[in-house]
Amino acid sequence: MTLSGAALGSDGTIGILGGGQLGRMLALAAARLGLKCHVYSPDPQSPAFDVVRRATHGDYRDESALDSFAGDVDVVTYEFENVPAETARFLAARRPVLPDPAVLATTQDRLLEKNFIAGLQIATAPYRRIDGPADLAPALEAIGRPGVLKTRRFGYDGKGQVLIRNGDDPEAAWNAVGGAASILEAFVPFEREISVVAARGRDGRIACFDVTENEHRDHILKVARVPAEVPPAVAAEAQRIAERIAGAFDYVGVLAVEMFVVRNGTGHDVLVNEIAPRVHNSGHWTIDGASVSQFEQHVRAIAGWPLATPVRRGRVEMINLIGAEVEEYRQWLEVPGAAVHLYGKGGIRPGRKMGHVTRVTPE
Ligand code: AMP
User: Fold this and answer.
1) Rounded CA separation 73/61 (Å)
2) pLDDT at position 105 over 50
3) Which candidate among 35, 59, 187, 272 keeps its CA 20 to 30 Å from the CA of 228?
4) Which alpha helices (H) appear in 73-109, and where do they start and end?
5) Do the bridges between strand 212-217 and strand 182-186 make them parallel or antiparallel, or are there none, so unpaired?
6) pLDDT tens digit string along 306-354?
7) Cβ–Cβ contacts within 10 Å for residue 146, how many?
């Protein structure tokens, strides 16, 4: 055991809340550095369980299981941002939890998140708070149509959001998101979607990966390409935005900032869409495409170890294998230069991320 706040020794143990593919890839990166991992997840079929020294299958509210977990690890992190705030607080009373649980409280709620970003004078799509159907008409009046109604909590991969076009009934949209507290956002006619994956160490040093361009299909990331085809000034602005957000949170670990690039006359505007307080799908290319992966950077940061300076190995393309596409893995195994990653998930379901393939072309 190391003392709270001190850097982990090379025999340290990292506790990971959440057992999906992100936890699995974090644990694999930690193992390469000689560190042990203990994954805590409520899902008995967690893909991360297969690759760690210890696994706890427990509910996020099971205090006795959480207490044993805390006793076994030196630092706690998460691969999943919807960890209940009380769980993070319970653990934080026993072990350092990084990034700080206060970050979760902001990023779990789209309204608080947007207010936080706007408070840093960083641009977002115009938005309004929607507490009930009566708030929609004035909000649509102010923002215009189309607008996007998004639930404040538990939205991902386009879930909990609905477009309101000309002629659409706002009340139907309210019902479609389940009548939950929401925000209405202006629809952004973006030219591209990009993201920046940034790591911030305990010493405050920040290292950004190169800007990634993201192509979605049915609201789910399908292909990520690096470098993004944006002017150097836009790339620099996107990285500055990610650095400011990480600094403002006093963040420790890896975060991803998803952004829209919008044409504005002869130039471009960069609007922040969303912050993910964790390693992110648009950073998977870093495993094969950079000298250090987002997973290793996260491990280094929370362990109190120095961050690496990432060097990209060429042009990189990362293709997600979604649902039944995972069955294409046999063909991909034969493609020269393709790196195949399968997450070991049992059940194929539409929209489920089952694996990914990375291709690197030297520049
Ligand atoms: P989100 O869950 O907010 O990340 O949204 C998922 C995807 O929906 C984004 O990656 C965009 O492709 C699209 N989207 C979300 N919000 C907007 C918006 N305000 N304008 C245009 N497209 C959006």
Assistant:
1) 18
2) yes
3) 187
4) 85-92, 101-107
5) unpaired
6) 999 999 999 999 999 999 999 999 999 999 999 999 999 989 999 999 9
7) 15
Please state the pTM of the whole predicted model: 0.96
The CA 18 to ligand 1 mean position distance, Å, reads 25
For ligand 1, the distance from its centroid to the CA atom of residue 321, given in whole angstroms, is: 21
CA distances from 63 to 1, 86, 213, 230, 338 (A): 21, 10, 41, 48, 44
> What are the tens digits of pLDDT across the range 286-308?
999 999 999 999 999 999 999 99
Cα of 303 from ligand 1 centre, angstroms: 33
Pocket of ligand 1, beta carbon within 6 A: 125, 148, 155-156, 158, 185, 187-188, 193, 216, 219, 258, 273-274
What is residue 159's predicted lDDT score, i.e. its pLDDT? 77
Mean confidence (pLDDT) of the chain: 96
Domains delineated in the chain: 13-97 (3.40.50.20), 126-186 (3.30.1490.20), 192-361 (3.30.470.20)
Helix (H, G, I), strand (E, B) or coil at 101: helix
Tokens of 185: 């956002």
